[in-house]
């Protein structure tokens, strides 16, 4: 009888999960526990569990890492060659670009290792090991060493990670760090050991007319025709260990790299993605979803839209400004459009109704179980949302205007220290503070900052903030503007941007020749920044009080939802840790009468071409290759050149650049986007609509070889015909 129950249990799990196998950002360390490898094999996997993740040996995990600070990259040669997205490498490409060497427009192809460009600040990070530390954390809570709430704070977890690293065999090894994180809203804790390589060099990037083809218009949309890829290389010291840049460093001999398949894809083919999804909120209540729409997405849409209009206008007038603000505009626009799409998809896909239905089922489950905590938790969350939603709107507006919008500022605390030194006539301290101020001035007026562009942004955003936020909730500088400038924001901004000590080199040099208190006290930008940070501290204190109740409430709710789903396994929300998602190559029907096939070809590029629109310019050489059908070995069986394809993989931001891998463990594409109809997917996965947009690896190789004339890069890869 027990054997029969066990068999029935396994069949229930297998049947249910197979039906929804595309949903889930699964923890590698729990793959064996949560998923029978047989379920993945039913989808088309031809590997064993240890081929995916092996804590005691080499596996696919060792060919995937964190690219920069927020993307994924994969190793595609034994000599440290990285493939990631063009938009992930965009900051580095822009960093090395100038009007004279415009790699954004023209692309970049290193013809030898000597031409690969060092990129300060860029790193690639592997996951060395993952350990379950839940028992350690719970023991500390039980012993009274930490409260349940404080156990979820970065202060406690960073300290614990340091303690555990000091006891580890990895202590003191180059590039090694440890990170402790909560999962399942704090019901589980894991420690991740990371190995960071800081000498990463730019190898190849197609022109933006390929890597960013379609621009903001096509962002989040299908059909897509974007060659969204770039390539970098990891360098290490002679021992293969992480080291700061040195001309003596050599390409890293990687322990694992992905072989590349040219066999192509068909509808229904198995596809899995391994990467670092950034953040999802799949366990929100209905009230929290509504709050996300109204208090975060709506103000973000409005404020970023105004700033982006200013930037776009200025970028269209000047190549210098276009290059300076390329990354800033792209970063801002990406989640501006995401917020628009998310709010639309929440309504179209009836996400709030789905959440309400889930809460009803949960309440019935809680009553049947007789669990008072579960029975009360949704109402408690709703009450907390009611108290915090107005504040969250204010918090979003403040951060979007004063931290993400206006760039120009002044180091008011450093200025206060200088005033104190001037009072004391302490020459050593005066000189020390002036030297620090010189550094800050250079940081403000960096190569990617234009004072006149930022002036126009400030003139647009300061009055907009006043429209959106009541007078009694604004920073004190608004009262000052009302009193001293009769509410004229333009006059105030001009006074700041013309006269501040930090507004120009001439102003700054004049001040440091004769530093004096009076100049510091009357400086409007110092006054503005002081007001900004005073308000920030007030809001931070309020936020801490309002958000604290959610910590334990979510811990209870997530634990309950996971119990309610049993025996079906649950996955934790994304938190930029390595995950695996699996599904299939698949077309979809976004609305009545519309069918989207699962792939696109270069024919679509030519159909979209618009020489008068920067987003849809097609390079002459690409047109020539297309017209001559010069696709080499990368064409489909029918002679067409593939560009992008769709899969049902569950992804989010952070997965950009992730490898798309077939059932044999071979690279078939590079993930770069989600689809417009499912932008509510970070909150609620829709099995019918959710799609991952990927650039076909055959198009990547075609561009490298035919557009970049870089067959030497192709030759170092492992390519399977």
Task: Outline the structure in words.
With 721 residues, the protein is α+β, with helices and mostly antiparallel strands. The protein has four domains: 63-251, no CATH class; 260-281 and 573-720, Thrombin, subunit H (Beta Barrel); 286-404 and 546-565, no CATH class; 412-536, no CATH class. Helices cover 48% and strands 15% of the residues. It has 26 helices and 23 strands. Strands 2, 3, 4, 5, 6, 7, 8, 9, 10, 11 and 12 form an eleven-stranded antiparallel sheet that branches. Helix 11 packs antiparallel against helix 13 (351-369), helix 13 packs antiparallel against helix 14 (372-402) and helix 17 runs antiparallel to helix 19. The chain is globular, with a radius of gyration of 27 Å. The relative contact order is 0.16. Residues 1-21 have low confidence and may be disordered.
- Tally of discrete structural domains: 4
Principal-axes geometry comes out as globular
Distance between the termini: 51 Å
Our count of helices gives 26
What structural class is derived from the secondary structure elements?
alpha+beta
Instruction: Provide the residue-averaged pLDDT.
Output: 94
| Rg computed from alpha carbons, rounded to a whole number of angstroms | 27 Å
Number of strands: 23
Strand residue percentage: 15-25%
Stretches where pLDDT falls below 50 for ≥5 residues? 1-21
Function: Catalyzes the removal of dipeptides from the N-terminus of oligopeptides.
Keywords: Aminopeptidase, Hydrolase, Protease, Serine protease, Signal
Protein name: Dipeptidyl-peptidase
Family: Belongs to the peptidase S46 family.
């Amino acid at each position: 009888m027990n054997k029969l129950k066990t068999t029935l249990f396994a069949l229930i799990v297998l049947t249910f999960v197979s039906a929804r196998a595309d949903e889930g950002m699964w923890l590698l360390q729990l793959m064996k526990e949560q998923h029978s490898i047989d379920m993945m094999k039913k989808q088309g996997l031809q590997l064993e569990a240890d081929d995916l993740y092996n804590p005691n040996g080499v596996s696919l995990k060792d060919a995937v890492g964190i690219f920069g600070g927020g993307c994924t990259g994969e190793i595609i040669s034994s000599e440290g060659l990285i493939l990631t997205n063009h938009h992930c490498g965009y900051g580095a490409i822009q960093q090395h670009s100038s009007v004279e060497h415009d790699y954004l427009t023209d692309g970049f192809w290193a013809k030898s290792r000597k031409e690969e460009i060092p990129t300060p600040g860029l790193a690639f990070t592997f996951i060395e090991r993952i350990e379950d530390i839940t028992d350690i954390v719970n023991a500390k809570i039980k012993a009274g060493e930490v409260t349940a709430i404080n156990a979820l704070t970065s202060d406690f977890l960073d300290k614990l990670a340091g303690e555990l690293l000091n006891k580890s065999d990895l202590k003191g090894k180059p590039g090694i760090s440890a990170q402790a994180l909560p999962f399942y809203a704090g019901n589980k804790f894991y420690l991740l050991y990371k190995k960071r390589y800081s000498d990463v060099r730019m190898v190849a990037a197609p022109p933006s007319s390929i890597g960013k083809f379609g621009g903001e218009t096509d962002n989040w949309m299908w059909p897509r025709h974007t060659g969204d890829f770039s390539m970098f290389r990891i360098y290490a010291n002679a021992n293969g260990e992480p080291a700061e840049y040195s001309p003596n460093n050599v390409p890293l001999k990687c322990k694992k790299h992905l072989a590349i398949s040219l066999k192509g894809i068909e509808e229904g083919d198995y596809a899995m993605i391994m990467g670092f999804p950034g953040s999802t909120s799949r366990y929100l209540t209905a009230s929290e979803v509504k709050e996300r729409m109204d208090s975060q997405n709506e103000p973000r849409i409005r404020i970023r839209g105004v700033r982006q209009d200013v930037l776009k206008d200025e970028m269209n007038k000047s190549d210098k400004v276009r290059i300076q603000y390329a990354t800033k505009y792209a970063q801002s626009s990406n989640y501006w459009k995401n917020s628009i799409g998310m709010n639309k998809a929440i309504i179209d896909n009836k996400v709030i109704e789905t959440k309400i239905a889930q809460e009803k089922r949960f309440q019935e489950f809680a009553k049947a179980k007789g669990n008072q905590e579960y029975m009360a938790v949704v109402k408690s969350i709703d009450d907390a949302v009611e108290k915090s939603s107005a504040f969250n709107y204010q918090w979003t507006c403040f951060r979007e205007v004063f931290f993400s919008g206006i760039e120009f500022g002044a180091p008011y605390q450093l200025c206060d220290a200088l005033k104190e030194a001037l009072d004391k006539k302490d020459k050593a301290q005066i000189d020390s503070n002036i030297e620090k101020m010189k550094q800050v001035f250079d940081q403000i007026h960096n190569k990617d900052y234009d004072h006149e562009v930022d002036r126009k942004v400030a003139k647009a955003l300061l009055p907009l903030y006043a429209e959106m936020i009541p007078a009694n909730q604004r920073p004190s500088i608004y009262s000052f503007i009302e009193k001293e400038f009769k509410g004229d924001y333009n006059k105030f901004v001009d006074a700041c941007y013309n006269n501040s000590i930090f507004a120009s080199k001439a102003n700054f040099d004049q001040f440091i020749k004769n530093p004096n208190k009076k100049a510091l006290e009357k400086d409007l930008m110092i006054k503005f920044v002081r007001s900004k940070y005073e308000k920030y501290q007030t809001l931070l204190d309020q936020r801490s009080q309002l958000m604290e109740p959610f910590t334990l409430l979510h811990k209870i709710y997530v634990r309950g939802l996971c119990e309610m789903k049993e025996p079906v396994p649950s996955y934790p929300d994304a938190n930029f840790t390595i995950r695996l998602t699996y599904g299939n190559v698949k077309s979809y029907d976004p609305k009545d009468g519309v069918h989207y096939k699962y792939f696109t070809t270069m024919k679509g590029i030519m159909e979209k071409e618009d020489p008068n629109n920067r987003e849809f310019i097609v390079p002459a050489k690409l047109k020539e290759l297309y017209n001559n059908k010069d696709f080499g070995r990368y064409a489909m069986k029918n002679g067409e050149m593939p560009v992008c394809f769709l899969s049902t993989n569950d992804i989010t931001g952070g997965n950009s650049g992730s490898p798309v891998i077939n059932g044999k463990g071979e690279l078939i594409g590079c993930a770069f986007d989600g689809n417009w109809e499912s932008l509510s997917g970070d909150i609620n996965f829709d099995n019918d609509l959710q799609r991952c947009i990927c650039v076909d690896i055959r198009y990547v190789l075609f561009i490298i070889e035919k557009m970049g004339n870089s067959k030497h890069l192709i030759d170092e890869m492992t390519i399977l015909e």
